[in-house]
Amino acid sequence: MKQVQWFPGHMVKARRQVEEKLGVIDIVFELLDARAVISSMNPDIPSIIKNKPRLLILNKADLADPNVTKSWIQYFQSQGLQAVSSDATQDDLLPIIKPVVEQILAPLREKERKKGMKDRPIRVMVLGIPNVGKSQFINRLSNRNKTKTGDKPGITKIQQYLRIGDHFEILDNPGILWHKFEDPMVGLKLALLGSIKDEILPLDDLVLFGIHYLKERYPSLLKDKYKSVSNEDEEILAAIGRSRGVLQKGGMIDYERVMKLFLFDLRNGKLGRISYDRVESD
User: Fold this and answer.
1) What pTM did the predictor assign?
2) N or C: which end of the chain has fewer CB atoms below 10 A?
C-alpha cells in the first residue's frame, strides 16, 4: 500500500508560530475529527505544547457514530485527559466549553487571585490538522461568523485572535500535519475525511478503501443509501451510479464521477454517522 505523505511548506512556519505564542497561552484546545479520533491526532502536539493544559474536542460529532464518540470520551477521561464532543447542531458552545475550561484552569486562576490579579479572559490556542473544523468551531463558540470556513484543507493561512466576551481570547492557527504517516491506514482515513488533498492518493484506491470499510462495519448503510444488495465492488459502484443518476448513454458507468459522488456522500454524512477509529482497536 502506498505510503501517504503531505507536508506543505507553510506548515513549518505554522508550527514555529505556535511555539512562539505558547508563552502567553493558558490552555490549548486540540480539535480532533470525531470520525477518526486517533488518526486526526497529531503525534507532535504534546512535544509542541509541552506542559500547557489541554482540552480535547471531538469535533464534527454529528457525522460520527455516537456510541463510538461516547467511548472515546470515556477512554480519554480514564487516561486523565479532559474531552468533550462538538457538532454543527450546537449553536452555542460556550455553556458546554466554559465550565470544563474553568475546571482545568482552577489552579491557575486561584494562583492569580492570591497574587491580587483580577480575573481576565482566558487565552486559548486552537490546534488541529487541516479541515478538522477549527474555524467553524470558533464561529459557534463565539456565536459569530468572523473566521473563514471551507470544506478543503488549508483554509486558515495565518494566526488570528478573536475575543469572545469576557471569557476567552482565542488564537486560531493554520492546520498542522506531521511529516509522515507511518501507518498507511492513517493516511487513507484522513483522505476519506478530506483532511489531505484528494490528489495525494489515487481516487479508486481511496473509494475502494471506503467501500470495503463500510462493507465490514456499516453494511446496511450501502444498502439503505444506494439500494445495493451485492458484495462486489463493481456492482456497488454501479448501484451508486444508478442511485445518483450518473450513468452514461447506453447504461455505461461514469466511474470517476460515481467515485467523486461517493466521497461527497461519505464526507458529508449522506450515508449516515460513521466512525473509522475505535477504542478497542486503535
Assistant:
1) 0.85
2) N
